[in-house]
Write a structure and sequence with these properties.
Helix content is about 40%, strand content about 20%. It contains 15 helices and 14 strands. Strand 12 (about 385-390) and strand 13 form a beta hairpin. It is globular. The termini are far apart. About 40% of the residues are buried. It binds adenosine-5'-triphosphate (ATP) and magnesium ion. Adenosine-5'-triphosphate binds near residues 111, 113 and 128.
Amino acid sequence: MSDTQPVEGRAQNRQTAESMAARQREISISEFFSKNRHLLGFDNPQKALLTAVKEAVDNSLDACEDAGILPTIKIGIQQLAEDRFRIAVEDNGPGIVKAQIPKIFGKLLYGSKFHTLKQARGQQGIGISAAGMYGLLTTGKSLSVTSRTGEEKPAHYYEIQIDTRKNAPQIITDKVVEWDPPHGTRVEIELIGTYKKGRHSVDDYVRQTAIANPHCEIFYTAPDTEEVLHLQRGSDQLPPEPREIKPHPYGVELGVLIRMMKESSARQLSAALQRDFSRVSGRVAVEICKAAGLNPNANPHTIVVHEAERLFRAINGVKIMSPATNCLSPIGEEQILAGLRKEIAADYFTAITRAPAVYRGNPFQVEVGLAYGGRLQSDDLIDLLRFANRVPLQYQQSGCAITKAALGIDWRSYGLSQSKGALPVGPVVLFVHIASVWVPFTSESKEAVAAYPEIMRELRLALQECGRKLATHIRAHRRAVDEEKKKSYIEKYIPHIGIALREILGLSEKAEKQVVVTLKDVLERSRSREHIED
Ligand SMILES: Nc1ncnc2c1ncn2[C@@H]1O[C@H](COP(=O)(O)OP(=O)(O)OP(=O)(O)O)[C@@H](O)[C@H]1O
Ligand SMILES: [Mg+2]
């Protein structure tokens, strides 16, 4: 409004508390995210295509592993028009119970993973319904699901739309269909997108998924080809099953502690601490209560704020065992090497898995793999592959703790060249994985990991360890090349030494030949001796 407008005009537009009250109302989560879809990874058409595929594949892999099934995933992208695609992701997982299908695919914040502390690809309960919502917003088409939970059971086919005002599913079609697979789920979404090759592409995502999940078999059909890319399993071993754990007391926040005590099924404070937290024995629980000046037999439901504060402080003063780490399922050095060898044409490979550590009470574990040389480009920046709970991260590289940690390493001391503030240059693929019961992503789109100090520390240590191994390899390799160069130089001059000796010492031609043969022999023997020492 400009200052020259008449005052009466302004006065007419003035709001009163009552007129404002008439406009104030609840905002549904899906209305919020349909306005802010960039928060969920749908901010441009290329990213939207990748995100939709990724959400479906993440869910398929989680479901298969939870059910103890070696995953076979079929990913198909069909181009319908210049900017319109239909994606289909099918798995051989346990399937989904009929009654759950509408809510899973037609309601944001509905899922099985949010409330459990266990390593999984999904955690928020937004992923697949958001992909369906984006498809609906951009094409008006429903998401379709076919799912079957067993050979004896019928396959159900649903077409679902999300009613964004209510954040509730609308069932468009619901029928029983003929479907061959004995169990599994197939999700199809039509959406506006862009398909590109290269960096950030679905192709890249599929290849990296195969590296980090060598137990998974993938059939992939890109939109520009009839050919099905078959990525075979590199291993028939399912990853060890991660166990669900309870929160560790060290990481708990005051508000959470109060809620946990009020909602506990235990009747006594010490029992509540013991039951609802991990690593709290009866003895530790009593010790905490005593340190807080509270009666261990008090009713936890009636705890008041100042008591909870005392309890909170006491927890941090009592020695409690570190959280159990069987809630994590790292890829493991052997499998990382198998994955890298399967997909990358390098000639040196190394990998390390760090011991688990904890941030804000959440166990996590860092792993680094490195491939060097071979057919990799030596004058480009290294290729940094980032993974969280086995999911490749494609966007927001610079905002990610993994990149920050890699940038903070002095790679020159490990034999690579590096400009200030940049990734090093060299024939290297660097694979970095963080596994956690709760990966602290910087946004709901799960593209980058937040730089908690504990996570940065583990990343740095793991990268340094891999760097040292690389340096040893590069040094040995350079030494061998140098030696070889020197020797071929000497070899070239041996006949000239023979001639010179004949001239200086007046040797016969026969003696000269003898000298040349002897010198070549000595050189050859030094070569084979080195070979043995290697
Ligand atoms: N292919 C599938 N097979 C079996 N269950 C599935 C499948 N896809 C989804 N689900 C179930 O639906 C739930 C919701 O999926 P959704 O992707 O929306 O959220 P999430 O995976 O829990 O978390 P995130 O938002 O981080 O992806 C999952 O928690 C899972 O229980
Ligand atoms: Mg998901």
